[in-house]
Amino acid sequence: MAERIVVINPNCNEQVTAGMSAALEGFRFADGPAIDCRTLAEGPPGIESQILSDQVIGPLCRMIAAEDKAASAFVIACFSDPGLHSARESTDRPVVGIAEAGITTAMNLGQNVGIVSILANSLPRHVRYFRAMGVAHCIAGDLPIDMTVSELADDGKVFRRMSEVGGRLRDENGADVLVMGCAGFSRHRAGLEEALGLPVVDPTQAAVGMALTILRSRSRR
């Protein structure tokens, strides 16, 4: 079987999926795995609360189980990493969550990690997760741009808000590396990095890079 990484957007927003796929173009190469970005049709327009995060776990695990024989690895492309541990029980393939991958990648680039999130009600969910991961002490701050996932189509407004929030994290919280706390931010990584003068991690790219590393190291045994 040819290797294939399935990147699952757990919301039903096709524009978010398309943006992620475009941001992953540089990770596709001739002798590498196919990178197939999929949308969870049963998902909400955006995962913006703990309830919505929990609601997608069942459909997400069913999609992973259905794709199991045709996939080499899975990426859950939502910064809440919904159902990550349940997903890992649904398949023998590697399953990488973008929040876990994004934070651990950022910790290799700086000492104080700033998170640019979407909404204020996402922050308690993130704090719980950072504590569970044992990395809360590395988080300089987590600030929202106060826009819903459905509003992310307004590129100009999104970038302005991300730049403002990223600047606050840098100047007021002492962040020396930023992580974009939403898969829908992917297309803004390079611009944000240039505008703020800090390393900026796209967690979806980080997760796919991790999946590629796992597959490549196994193929060299």
What does this structure look like?
It is built from 9 helices and 8 strands. It has helices at 14-23, 50-55, 57-67, 84-89, 98-106, 123-133, 155-171, 189-196, 203-219, and strands spanning 4-9, 34-39, 73-76, 95-97, 113-117, 139-144, 177-180, 200-201. A 4-stranded parallel sheet has the order 2-1-3-4, sandwiched between helices. Helix 1 (14-23) links the parallel strand 1 and strand 2. Helix 5 crosses helix 9 and helix 7 (155-171) packs across helix 8. The chain is globular, with a radius of gyration of 16 Å.
Number of strands: 8
What's the CATH architecture name of the largest domain? 3-Layer(aba) Sandwich
Pick out the low-confidence regions.
Answer: none
**Rounded mean pLDDT score:** 94
Helix count? 9
Radius of gyration: 16 Å
Distance between the termini: 17 Å
User: How many structurally independent domains?
Assistant: 2
In spatial order, strands of the major sheet run 2-1-3-4
CATH topology of the largest domain: Rossmann fold
Notable traits:
alpha/beta, four-stranded parallel sheet, Rossmann fold, 43% helix, single chain, 221 residues
How is this structure best summarized?
With 221 residues, the chain is of the alpha/beta class. Helix content is 43%, strand content 16%.
Topology of helices and strands:
Elements: E1 4-9, H1 14-23, E2 34-39, H2 50-55, H3 57-67, E3 73-76, H4 84-89, E4 95-97, H5 98-106, E5 113-117, H6 123-133, E6 139-144, H7 155-171, E7 177-180, H8 189-196, E8 200-201, H9 203-219
Helix pairs in contact: 5-9, 7-8
